[in-house]
Amino acid sequence: MNTENEPERTVPPSRKLQQWLQFVPNTLTLCNSLCGYAAILVTLQAYKHVDDQRAMATIFAWSAGLILFAMVFDMFDGFTARLLHASSLHGIQMDSLADMTTFGVAPATLVAVMAHNMRHIERAGEFVPICMLCGIYLGCAALRLATYNVHAMYEKKSSDVFTGLPSPGAAAALCTIILFAATEKGSNTLREYFRYLPTYAMILGFLMVSQVPYLHFGKYLASAKYHPKRAVLIGILLLVWLVSSFLVNPFLFPFLLVNIYVVWGLIAYFALKTGFVKHTHPLVAEPDRDANEDGERKP
Fold it and tell me: Which of 2, 75, 252, 297 is most buried (CB neighbours < 10 A)?
């Protein structure tokens, strides 16, 4: 029991500073989750414009854009946590909860509402299968994030490989399709794409919890300054994006790049299984169960 004469315990200045520094990555993580929340709210506005296809397309494009923008915060919260030595178990939990909102709930809601509105579904029997497909995506995202939370808590090893499609990659695959279709000329373009999105969302969900290895594309890009060939490749990709933005559609290149990344993982996996390529191939990821989820906010 403390008395009045007993000196008060104080936290060392370095520890106080460390506590304040933890707010930086946590704030970025909150911005990630707020983008996901905003995307859901924007998506629901489509019910005000059920008879206006172009207005709905604009709403869905904004929602998809918010989800993609959240990836900036998702990338920098892990980076700042490592830079400031502010990683913590609390940060790991926050990161996965934010990813669940932004890359799990928001894309599933976006695809379900889009299919519901653009098909003018009246009967529950028609909408239930769509909800089930989007629910599979949502459930797989939850399973993946929970699994990699455990890995982040007990494994100290970082890796250049993901086991299974990372949740931001799955969300990006859906959102880039929606952005491309919504900004493409012609009022019926989005209608031609949306009918396949619930099924594609289910496939992406299964890939998230699969054993298919995927390269850590962020680390691949970050290491370009140490690998001249990678720097040249990135320069070519940026040039192609710039040209395609002027000639066709600014979202065509991201749409192709992200979805090729998804398909390439499957192709490489089966190529490894059949012995068609070796594990040492530079563009083929070898399975690594120690790979952590995207934020890598490990203690």
Answer: 297
Residue 195 phi/psi, 5° resolution? -65, -20
List the chain domain ranges: 14-212
Q: CA-CA distance, 9 to 221, in Å (whole number)?
A: 47
CB-based contact 95:26 (threshold 8 Å):
no
How is domain 14-212 classified at the architecture level of CATH?
Up-down Bundle (1.20)
Contacts for 12 with CB less than 8 Å, ≥ 6 apart? none
Q: How far apart are CA 21 and CA 26, in angstroms?
A: 9
- The span from the CA of 29 to the CA of 210, in Å, is 26
Residue with tokens 């490749």: 233
Alpha-carbon span 68 to 176, nearest angstrom: 8
> Is residue 258 a contact partner of residue 237, using CB atoms and an 8 Å limit?
no
b/e code 150-159 from CB counts within 10 Å (16+ = b): ebbeeeeeeb
Q: Which amino acid is at 176?
A: T
Tell me the whole-structure pTM to 2 decimals. Answer: 0.81
Burial of 6 by CB count in 10 Å (0-12 exposed, 13-18 middle, 19+ buried)? exposed
Beta bridge partners of 162: 214
Given 3-state DSSP classes, what are the helix, strand and coil percentages for the chain, each rounded to the nearest 5? 70, 0, 25
The SS3 call for residue 288 is coil
Residue range 151-205, pLDDT digits in tens = 766 665 556 678 889 999 999 999 999 998 888 765 466 667 777 889 999 999 9
List all residues 6 or more positions away from 269 whose beta carbon is below 8 Å from its beta carbon: 211, 212, 213
